[in-house]
Structure formats: C-alpha cells, structure tokens
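May I ask for whichever protein you like with its backbone structure tokens?
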Amino acid sequence: MSILCGKPANNFQTDDGHLERIRRAELESVCEQFQPGVNVLEIGGGSGFQAAILSSSGSKITSIDIAGRKPAHKSYFTVQDYDGEKIPFPDESFDLVFSSNVLEHVRSLPSFLKEIERVLKPGGTSLHIVPSPSWRFWTSFTHYIYAVRWLLGIQQRVPGVVEPTTFRQVAKENGLTTAIKQLVLAGAHGEYPNAVSELYYFSRRRWRQVFEDTGIRVLKIHDCGVFYTGYAIMPALSIAARKRIARWLGSSCFAVTAKKNDL
C-alpha cells in the first residue's frame, strides 16, 4: 500500500523499484502541500507514479508530459501529451502546479514559469523538486564507478536510471572517440554547458534567482532530505539509510515553493 504523510493512499498497490522509492521519498518531503480535493497539475509526469500516489491520497490530479518522450517501463497513471511549451488548459485552472526533476531540462525557464503562472488560480502555489549541487557532485564522482562497470559490460540495469548500453555498442554506433568521452567525462544532466557548471546552476541561490527574476515570489526552498545519485550505484540502499547519508553528504534535491503573483 502507498503511504503519503504517514497516511495510507487508498487503492494504489505497487512494488517499488529504486526510482519509485526515491520519487516517493521526495513526495513525502512536501506532502503537506497536497490536501484532499486540491486541484493539481503535474508537469513531466513520466510513468505517472507520483500522480497515482497523489490521486489515491485525495488530490485531483491532471498529469502532462512532452509528446514523443521515451516510453516508461511501467505506466501507473494516465499522462497526457503536450508540446512542452503551451500548457493545454485555460487561465486560472489549478490550485497547485507540481513538477519533479523537470526544471533543469527546460531550455527557456522564464517563459515556462510564466506559463505556469497563467494556469494557476489567484493565490495558487507552484511546487518544484529540483536537483542540488550535492546531487551533481556525487553523480560526477560515482560516474567513474559506473564507467568501469560500463567498460567491462557489467553495469546494473535499473529501469529509468541508466541506459542498458555497453562501451562496445556506443563505439560501434557513434565512434570510438564518443565512447571514450562518455567513459572519461561526466556529462551535463540538464540544459547547461557541462557538469561543472551545474554545481552553480543547481545551487539554492540560483534556483531562487530564476524565479525572482521572473517576478515570482519564492516562499521557501528546503532540502528534501534524501541522498541518491544519477547512477544508482547502490539501488538496494534503504530510504532510511539515504536520509541518514543526506545529513553528511547533502540532500540530492531541493523543493522550491512559490506563490502566484496576483498583481
């Protein structure tokens, strides 16, 4: 049974994998925002996993994601296609707009945030889970553990986390130079120049600046309090252990809560 804020989420049974456990833990860190009956738009719904939890917990959920995205390994909730730019709903349609690990992939954040403002009701809230510098640093660090496994063809296959390719496959399809670059360098995760620059772009100060430069009032930015990397080096590690590690190595994500500017 799914649990949100310590309360059972009815009629939603799931056998969580690594990524699902992480996404559930992220939701738990912001669960007070999702009161029963609140009308929520989720952007970047993916498999619909988080939408399914929220829906079964009493929120009214509409989930959208870009058309042509890579199919999820499992579907949990209906996720509507959209073009990634124009949200296909009238002005002032939702009480809350939610996204999880989406903003770093948006090329034009100011226009995207303004579109979110458009569909929020007066007094509405936007809530975004975003990566932190800790996630970037430790993902770059564990890249080399993953790279050795990848070179030897023994990497763990974790759905939704890493591509099940081998060094030999990449060299054959894209050339040896490309394969070596992927082996040696940790690539950028989002719409930024490189992994090093993301240490700044994923900082708390920069996330706040993006919103405030667009005229959006940030209420708070807080740690989600869970540790993980982009390579799932230890996928069996419990959430309780990840929370303890986050106290020492840093939370891998922030939750940004902002209020609609009604002026």
In short: The two ends are 43 Å apart (CA to CA).
